[in-house]
Design goal:
Layout (H helix, E strand, L loop, with lengths): L13 E5 L3 H11 L4 E5 L2 H11 L3 E7 L7 H11 L7 E5 L4 H10 L3 E4 L4 H57 L6 H15 L8 H12 L10 H4 L7 H8 L1 H10 L2 H4 L2 H12 L20 H16 L10 H10 L7 H20 L5
Parallel strand pairs: 1-2, 1-3, 3-4, 4-5
Helix pairs in contact: 1-5, 2-3, 3-4, 6-7, 6-13, 6-15, 7-12, 10-12, 12-13, 13-14, 14-15
Length: 365
């Protein structure tokens, strides 16, 4: 239900008195009229109508419990349903002292219960004190809400800046590696398609899948720290060169952790994990941590397979592209390392879709 009282710059300068007794209303009005505008209603339903029309200006509501056309308890219950009691204090005036009535009033949200006959200075002090308390609290809530909104906007800007910077950096690395610049975009598309359209992504929410897809963009960011003569070498790497190349996983994770705006984002945990573990393999023969089986996260497993698939069907400085059929055979036969059998089954289920994805992405060089 939409709140009746929205944030408003109008001063809360009005008190609503709802009582079927003219004498009681006059007595209460005399207490507050010097400091507040006073509205009066002689039954519960009329009081609710006035409340709806003047809600944003009301500082407090004073209700008699015993009234025609909706008593004070009924009015209080309806006000609770309208969602105004957290912003507007309600006081009940009653000559009754039944415990069950008083207990129900407090449970429904009454701020205070004032016994009849009222003592003017007591009523004035109690009502004004609570009004001041609500005013301070509402102002504080408004300030907190504004600050939270500003911080969220700032965090979003920092997040977009950080991710944009990483995506640009990843693309630069691709060009250094004699790639077309489309690898990270294809990797993201393959990863999200695998997780969104197969059982391998079961249990993941769409937001998680999107974050893993974004993390795929940063998987090779650590290659910025690899010397060009190794990164762009057209032939086979020596054992020493390969050991240096392998460090791109840990260097990538270190680089991501050094970007302060990213560390507070949900994206960071996925990006760090994928950068560090996208070369781990199901049988424990990957690197850098030699993780095995389900020790490797779903995201890292999926990005690893997507990375291998795209690398095989793409032209690289050290090889010509394989056909899609050849790439599938190499992956299934284990020539590119061991993958989760379930992931391989899911990959085969949608591999035709992946080929069609390529026609909608950058052309394979």
């Amino acid at each position: 239900m939409k709140k009746l009282i929205e944030k408003c710059d109008s001063p809360r300068d009005t008190i609503l008195i709802v009582d079927d007794s003219i004498v009681s209303r006059a007595s209460l009005k005399s207490i507050f009229v010097k400091d507040y505008r006073v509205l009066e209603a002689d039954d519960g339903l009329s009081g609710l109508d006035m409340l709806k029309n003047a809600a944003e200006r009301l500082a407090a509501v004073i209700l008699d419990i015993v009234m025609p056309r909706a008593d004070g308890i009924q009015v209080l219950r309806i006000m609770g349903q309208m969602g105004v009691l957290d912003q507007l204090p309600v006081f009940l005036i009653t000559g009754e002292h039944k415990d069950e009535v008083l207990r129900e009033a407090y449970e429904l949200g009454a701020m205070d219960i004032i016994p009849k006959p009222v003592i003017p200075y007591v009523v004035e002090r109690r009502v004004k004190s609570v009004i001041e308390l609500f005013h301070s609290r509402n102002n504080l809530n408004d300030i907190i809400a504004e600050q939270r909104q500003a911080l969220m906007a700032q965090a979003e800007q920092l997040y977009e800046y950080g991710v944009g910077m990483i995506e640009t950096l990843s693309t630069v690395i691709e060009f250094k590696h004699d790639e077309s610049g489309g690898h990270v975009r294809r990797l993201r598309a393959i990863t999200t398609h695998l997780l969104r359209h197969t059982a391998f992504g079961e249990g993941l929410e769409n937001k998680e899948i999107d974050l893993i897809g974004m993390a795929a963009i940063t998987h090779d960011v650590g290659k910025i720290a690899i010397p060009d003569h190794i990164l762009t070498k057209p032939g086979r790497l020596t054992e020493e060169e390969f050991e240096i190349m392998k460090t791109h996983t840990s260097k990538g994770a270190d680089l991501l952790s050094s970007i302060t705006p990213l560390r507070d984002q949900a994206f960071y945990a996925y990006a760090y994990d994928v950068a560090l573990h996208h070369h781990e393999r199901w049988d424990g023969k990957g690197y850098p941590d030699r993780l095995m089986g389900d020790e490797i996260s779903t995201g890292a497993q999926t990005v690893a397979l997507a990375d291998v698939y795209d690398a095989l069907v793409s032209k690289r400085c050290y090889k010509n592209p394989y056909s899609f059929d050849e790439a599938v055979k190499m992956i299934i036969s284990g020539q590119c390392g061991a993958f989760n059998p379930q992931l391989l089954r899911c990959f085969l289920d949608i591999e035709g879709d992946l080929r069609r994805l390529y026609s909608n992405l950058a052309s394979v060089s």
